[in-house]
């Protein structure tokens, strides 16, 4: 189809485009290479199938904003298909009388796909452009009080406009070119849309149609060649670096699992993250995988209660710093402190580590991990942290719990209690080691949960034991607060004790203990089967070991603790336990994997919230109250405290109970 001169010009244009594109890609690879650690390429072999599935189905984007996600998928499916279409068009342009994939069924099916998806892309782009630039939804931006690169506020919309226009005209002129070709050669039943448009050109001369075919080809393919060098600098490079996350992101047992810091290695001079080079390679990759869609911000409890933290801004600021200074960083220069351009100190401490931002990101980004690594850097390198943490830190250092209660009082909750709670000294070979946890052992309100669970274990005849005065804090609060060394000491001590006892199975009364023992202790040599008390209660019920009477017909709603649900995937067991006593379960708007945080995670339990429009716990409680239930069920001592506080502030309108308390009340 192309003339000889056109073929030469096209080859030259391709060469120039690839040269400048590769320069941009080289810089990105050098930047990512400066991050800590190296990719494990063996993971790619295991994940290739899932990655292809995610890329082709666009499944991750459909978890939020379903309508716009569908139109985005139209564009994505069409643009992906056009990798084949553009290749075929170039071959047909260079080889006379060549029909890509032939003129049989396969070729016809290919042309039908191109016809339908061309229209899908055009419709999708019109919807998305109107949505962004006409209706301008607030969710596609961030508040002015959030630290965001000055250019980002203007350039992100401009970048979206450039890419939108490029896609629309690239697909549009390819579609028009096909319609001009069909007007010249005759309609094709396998290309109904292009054939319909071709009828509009029925009055054109063959020479004019031929010119328009050439013009359409050069505009459609020329736009690709012009856009490619810009591509590495646009936010749409996520098309390539998102799949890199799917393929190579380090394996984790939970989205909240943090890597071990080796304090015994004297060659290590930096703990935590203070500059960009302190982040992992995958955290730098996140900057290029980011769509800048603000989904993470949309589900962030801190942002939604008016705090200045935006997980989206963390990734965007990282990306724009590299856009401005990527060449210097790639060449080995260090970045300024992360607090100078990534997020302010106040935002660092506003994070509840609920994991919502990590869970919802369609590209697999982990802004929460950046924040927790920055906390580590602040505490370990600068000794800078909220002073409110000091009593909790002292309590964990001296008395092995953040409340500072002496170990001799660890079993005080069993006094004046009509059930014997055996320690490992009294029962050295238990089937279950019950890791009671700091709150249920020392906090007056949470002790009622411990007593209720003890009644359940006794009623079921479970062979169990507790650590008693030897039980220490799991270290979750220390680690989320950035005090990794304190966590290191607690973890080593606990693992040594567990291994000495030879535990078979551990049940915890706290999701934070569950998460830490199950997901983070393996790095310290502690590999155990760990379950949550709601899972064990469900297990006992299903095994017929509990005789339960039905509750009074009363509506109940359940608050999913972040570290039980989103972090560890336990959603059904608590609900099944409630349904076992015929309670009518009413779900809140935000439940299961989209549950809204209580506000205590990320060591927030030990400090006041940062300034905002509302408190996180009060916002969550208002949602619980609005659903019309009379009882709010929880499965975490931190959640229990936060919901009780909010309930008291509202005049005690709801009954707030742990699931263990609800089940214990129904024991016959």
Number of domains: 4
Measured by DSSP, the beta-strand proportion falls in: under 5%
Number of H/I helices: 27
Radius of gyration: 29 Å
Q: Which bin fits the share of residues in helices? A: 40-55%
The helix/strand class is mainly alpha
Largest β sheet strand count, sense and barrel closure: 4 strands, parallel
Strand segment count: 8
Question: pLDDT below 50 for ≥5 consecutive residues: which ranges?
Answer: none
Give the strand order, joined by hyphens, for the main sheet: 2-1-3-4
**Distance between the amino and carboxyl termini:** 85 Å
Shape: elongated
What's the rounded overall pLDDT mean? 95
Structure description:
The protein has 668 residues and is mainly alpha-helical. It has four domains: 4-140 and 149-247; 261-382, Fumarate Reductase Iron-sulfur Protein, Chain B, domain 2, CATH 1.10.1060; 389-541, Rossmann fold (3-Layer(aba) Sandwich), CATH 3.40.50; 555-664, AF0625-like (Rossmann fold, 3-Layer(aba) Sandwich). Helices cover 54% and strands 4% of the residues. The chain has helices spanning 4-33, 42-57, 66-94, 105-135, 150-185, 192-198, 206-227, 238-248, 281-289, 295-299, 301-304, 311-330, 338-341, 345-348, 356-360, 367-382, 389-399, 438-442, 444-460, 476-480, 484-501, 511-520, 533-542, 572-579, 616-626, 637-649, 659-664; strands at residues 432-435, 464-466, 505-508, 529-532, 555-558, 584-585, 631-634, 655-658. The strands form two sheets. A four-stranded parallel β-sheet has the order 2-1-3-4. Helix 3 (66-94) crosses helix 4 (105-135), helix 4 (105-135) runs antiparallel to helix 5 and helix 12 (311-330) crosses helix 16. The longest helix is centred in the first third of the chain and has 36 residues, at 150-185. The model has no long low-confidence stretch (mean pLDDT 95).
